[in-house]
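Quick log. Single chain, no ligands specified.
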Amino acid sequence: MFCLLFDLQNFWLFVLAVAAIYAVIVNFIQNNIGGKGRMKALQKEMTEVQKKMLDAAKSGRDPEYKEQTERYNKLTFELVGMQLQMTAIFLLLYYPTVALLFPAFEPGMEDDVRVGLYDDGLASHCDALPGDGIFSGCYPLPPDGVKGAWVASVNLNSSEGYHLARQDAAIYYQWGKPEDVWLQSVSVTGFLDSFSGKKPYSLNVTTDKTEYSGGQAVAVFARPMQRVFSSQSNLNEIVRSFRENKVEIADKEISEISGFILSESSQKTMAIGNQTYHLAKHGTLFGDEAVVWVNNAPQGAILEATFNSGTFFHVDLPFPLPLLNIRRIIGSNGVFIFFAFVSGIAYSVTRSALGRIWTKFR
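-> predicted structure:
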């Protein structure tokens, strides 16, 4: 561990430097892979070919339409191939950075406390009933702990050690406010999972209360859930179909129970026999999606809660980010993504300006 090389006040400089280097490499690859400017040329050529295709189709010139279609398909394959090459390179650069580099250097992690969660009904684990699908754990807060907002991150792992899901919960040690923390929710799915029929998991994490004082014990409860159905259909239509089958629906608000892009989601619960289902509506890049989750934990599931003890790396922006309405970015990964995005824009603007100056005075 190299976390002692930086403190919480100067670590952002290291992340900024890495993000700037990453942005320069990414922009260089984008501008040079397949020949400098080839991607822009491809896109322009495809637009022209598409216009010729439409014109030939309207005029009934079938041979020309077939010729332009074949040409368009070849250009498409070339463009997709270039994009796949760039994606592979970006992933090879990105994942070692966030998975290996930052965890080794990020400060504020040395005082993290890990607590196992169990579904065994033992009072020592704060678990009420064995086998009810709710995994619980207890952590007594130190009397001299860091005051303010803490985060309890619960991770769900398979018996083989594969990470399946994560959900955060906020804890306020004597003082703090929701704006001090950014609660993350992750449902981990591999690229081939959808093809193999694997269903992603999610976590619903709560605590016995939110405000604590020194010496009190925090009880954390986590309910693993598995996605059994998802559709671009309207959530109300799915709810209506359950009502027609005389299934009781109870409205319930829950923030981010899965890894989709939206800070809030509306969830409804329903019970059929001994099984409880959760219907949620999430905003995605492709529009709203209706998702149905069922209470379920994988065989031999391992759950663990990590308390950050109130010390964590973050960057407070001078203004909230548009759309996301987030002002505080927590963790090296989030800060790196933000810095890389800003650095990429700055690099492109600077490169373009220098190019114009060079052309003018050459």
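Residues 104 and 200 are 28 Å apart (CA to CA).
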